[in-house]
Amino acid sequence: MSYELIRVERIGPVCRIYLNRPEVRNAQDRSLLRELDGALREAEADDDVRVVVLGAVGDHFSAGHDLKSARVERPNPTVEQRWNYEEEHFLEYCLRLHDLKKPTIAQVQGACIAGGYMVANMCDLIVCADNAFFSDPVAHSMGTASLEVLIHPWVMGMRKAKELIFTGARLPAAEALQIGMVNRVVPVAELEQATLELANTVAAAPPYGLRFTKRSLNRTWDAQGFRAAISAHFDLHQLSHVTEEFQEHLKRGLDSTIKRAKGLA
């Protein structure tokens, strides 16, 4: 396939997929998400690909959902339309990334906010630049029940997850490393090379051994209720869109949402 909003390159056994909308801090619109899902499917089907790296062009990994394009594409969605869109583009796409048959590594620099946080944390490993930060401001800025996929308590302790969501504050890369949410933090200039080196190390292992081990590790979460919790939260997230609080948010307009989110930094 040919892509417009992502960049795909093969480096030996490693497939690097880069979000490529740097002019909007790699905000995720419908087209980018569909291209990303397509590229992941292609990499999974390619027997020569052993590891997938998910990164981004520019200074930031992703500012999250593209709220401006959403307002144009879906100005007044019904409950059913919103549910269908978010189930496909957020819940199903994220779980497909989580379940990918090959190891995945997120390569994160700069801002990794909301939907960006959600996508990065679906990867098996995360390598960060020292200027990276993570944030989920939507409960504060929009009045919804966090993100569509509540991965937070699974990648950090419950109390830290609550703090991140309740305050909307930034989680710096160094602290993310300290609490075990990311695997490595390196200087910005070394991010690509450090991630590629890790990917090549992983790729040197027998592929089916990794595939079976990843499945077993993911099933450990499943045995603890991962999928049930993810699905239950998605339903609550949809319910939060019909509250009076969210309707008030809509009346204030998009600029108010963005200003409020930035004020939490």
Automatic annotation (TrEMBL):
Source organism superkingdom: Bacteria
Classification via CDD domains: crotonase-like
InterPro entries: ClpP/crotonase-like_dom_sf, Enoyl-CoA_hydra/iso
Family statement drawn from the similarity comment of this UniProt entry: Belongs to the enoyl-CoA hydratase/isomerase family.
Protein name, as recorded: Enoyl-CoA hydratase
Organism per entry: Achromobacter veterisilvae
Native organism taxonomy: Bacteria, Pseudomonadati, Pseudomonadota, Betaproteobacteria, Burkholderiales
